[in-house]
Design a protein that fits this description.
Elements: E1 2-6, H1 13-24, E2 27-30, H2 31-40, H3 44-54, H4 61-73, E3 81-84, H5 90-102, E4 109-114, H6 117-126, E5 127-130, E6 136-138, E7 157-158, H7 165-179, H8 181-187, E8 192-196, H9 201-215
Parallel strand pairs: 1-3, 1-4, 2-3, 4-8
Antiparallel strand pairs: 5-6, 5-7
Helix pairs in contact: 1-9, 2-3, 4-5, 6-7
The protein binds adenosine-5'-diphosphate (2 copies) and zinc ion (ZN).
Zinc ion binds near residues 135 and 150.
């Protein structure tokens, strides 16, 4: 199984990807995570990516495609994975097609989590992330047991620089202009699944599971 999880920033991709990875025994491949990890390690690729990320801009296609190609080069054609946050441009979607075709494989399904702009803004404003293990919380919808402390590892919670309101608006505009067109790209190929993301964490997950069951 090779899944792709799409949706605007704050749609709940990270939250759902965690559950999907466990339930279906998938490797999680998140370009956003890869960039942040590389940056933490002081890797030049991460430094370069972070210059874009801080501004709420997309990292350029060339660099992003290179990182994904390198990551997937270690995988066998039958590898089971979930891509979260990649592709984000039609150019990247084409690059991914090419990478998979060269491996003699293809995507199983593209899951598109649909949420309205107002919901996104509220979700982004309350998102808090663990500095240590990257677990994600929400001040209102998924508060940690102790304020600002990670349930999982005891680490500090913080707000990502690019989750501040100015950057969020920019990211939403970019989503509309650059990323949304991918939906049509995949619709045309017949493996698009739309999921209503404005439901509880559990209901969204159940809907995804049902859609995947219907597929097979
Ligand atoms: P993405 O990876 O798509 O940007 P996240 O999974 O990080 O989205 O979710 C964004 C924020 O919204 C997080 O704070 C998360 O806890 C919260 N969130 C995600 N899904 C839901 C949901 N179904 N209901 C309420 N809050 C949610
Ligand atoms: P979110 O879950 O909030 O949508 P991510 O963690 O996926 O955010 O990504 C954070 C940032 O990393 C993005 O705003 C963007 O700047 C950069 N990024 C991640 N994936 C890509 C990609 N496929 N192409 C370009 N930039 C990316
Ligand atoms: Zn933690």
């Amino acid at each position: 199984m090779k899944l792709l999880l799409m949706g605007p920033p704050g749609a709940g991709k990270g939250s759902q990807s965690k559950k999907l990875v466990e339930a279906y025994d998938l490797q999680s491949i998140s370009t956003g995570e890869m960039f942040r990890e590389a940056y933490k390690k002081g890797d030049p690729m991460g430094e370069k990516a972070m210059e874009y990320i801080r501004q709420g801009e997309l990292v350029d296609d060339e660099l992003t495609n290179r990182v994904v190609r390198e990551r997937l080069s270690h995988e066998r054609p039958d590898a089971r994975f979930l891509l979260d946050g990649y592709p984000r441009t039609v150019n990247q979607a084409r690059a991914l097609d090419k990478i998979l075709t060269e491996k003699g494989t293809r995507l199983t399904a593209v899951i598109n989590i649909v949420v309205d702009k107002e919901v996104i803004i509220e979700r982004m404003a309350g998102r808090r992330v663990c500095r240590q293990c990257a677990a994600t919380y929400h001040t209102k919808f998924r508060p940690p047991r102790v304020e600002n402390v990670c349930d999982a590892c005891g680490g500090d919670l913080h707000q990502r620089e690019d989750d501040k309101p100015a950057s969020v608006r920019n990211r939403l505009n970019i989503y509309e202009s650059k990323t949304r067109p991918i939906i049509d790209y995949y619709k045309g190929r017949g493996f698009l699944i739309n999921i209503d993301g404005e439901q509880s964490f559990e209901k969204v997950f159940r809907d995804i599971q049902r859609a995947l069951r219907d597929l097979t």
